[in-house]
Amino acid sequence: MTSLVVDNIGLLVTNIPELGEGPLGIVRDAALVIEGDRVAAIEQAGAAGDKRLDAGGRCVIPGFVDSHTHLVFAGDRADEFAARMSGRPYEAGGIRVTTEATRNASDAELRELTRRRRAEGLRAGITHIEIKSGYGLDIETERRLCEIAGEFTDDVTFMGGHLVPTEYEGRPNDYVELVCGEMLAACAPLAKWIDVFCERGAFDPEQSRAILEAGRRAGLGLRVHGNQLGPGPGVQLAVELGAASVDHCTYLEDGDIDALAGSDTVATFLPATDFSTRQPYPEARRAIDAGVNVAIATNTNPGSSNTTSMSFCIALAVRDMRMTMEEALAAGTLGGANALRRDDLGRLAPATRADAMILDSASYADLVYRPGVPLVAQTVVAGEVSP
Ligand code: NIG
Questions:
Q1: Helix or strand or coil: residue 54?
Q2: Is the CB of 311 under 6 A from ligand 1?
Q3: Does the model's pTM come out above 0.90?
Q4: Ligand 1 pocket, 228 CB below 6 A?
Q5: Ligand 1 atom 11: the closest Cα is on which residue?
Q6: Helix or strand or coil: residue 364?
Q7: Atom of ligand 1 lying closest to residue 228 CA
Q8: Where do the domains of the chain lie, and which CATH numbers do they carry?
Q9: Torsion of CA 53, 59, 65, 68, to 10 degrees
Q10: pLDDT tens across 52-98, in order?
Q11: Does position 183 have pLDDT exceeding 80, yes or no?
């Protein structure tokens, strides 16, 4: 098997405290030895290998793991964003605008749009991604979205429970029945996860529970959109059902934090969404201090978070959510892996997938200290150096 050595690393973040200094397990003057698609060893700089990539004394970190995206969609909602910047509030109903555009797009168009977004994220250091359906809201389009998502990741989430589509207006329970029945049957073979938007204006707790339990019966893992637009039942439901992650968590009450802290459910924060929708930022400090496992993700979508920049999300988490740089970096790498229940991602240690990036900087601190600057010099995905 051919080996690749990423050599001359000034500061290597492993995310494994036992391997180095501090919570990020930092190793200085290091070499990352890769065999095939896996990390083989962490050694001192100067290690031998078939191929050598010189990090030039810069910082190397695990690739970002983006555990929440809606990458497959057509159209944009720039006008809605502009109106919001002039004072109009965010409303979940905008999902229907994207649904119409997505239903009308061909597979080839959707595939090309998704490819471009995925390439953009990769250039920004996202080496693994979760992708949800949810802009089809009919059987055939949801199936197409899951199929296209599966061409880009093995973490595909079926989200027929994103919003009640126009043709089911006034009959939400009929739509829930469709999601739990025929739509799930068509999509479950193409997905690993099921997600539901448990929020006023989307699905109430009973409807959300029905969708999640049907997904579980079909063999899918559970994810929940909860507590995005106000306090609500999403977090508690996610914890009760043992969901891998509850995402947004913009409005956390004491009971939500207590429930999360005693659970395996990761609270995934999506700060670019709170930025773009002018919501308050989640109280991450309070959650972390209470012992909640957290992640940060981009939530790439045309309505509430049209960005593929995890660095931007990390900078917001430090600036506006009072996370330390180390917590935020871990949340965008290891946290994302935990939210997807992947122990092969988000860390650099023997046997993990060789997903890493060389930053154009001596320290990961520049992700926050130099916000908006493209700092990813080179990415390695599954042992392959990306162009
Ligand atoms: O995670 N909350 C629901 N879904 C997306 C928003 C989708 C949209 O506005 O198009 C989210 O923010």
A1: strand
A2: no
A3: yes
A4: yes
A5: 304
A6: coil
A7: 2
A8: 3-63+347-385 (2.30.40.10), 65-339 (3.20.20.140)
A9: -130
A10: 999 999 999 999 999 999 999 999 999 999 999 999 999 888 999 99
A11: yes
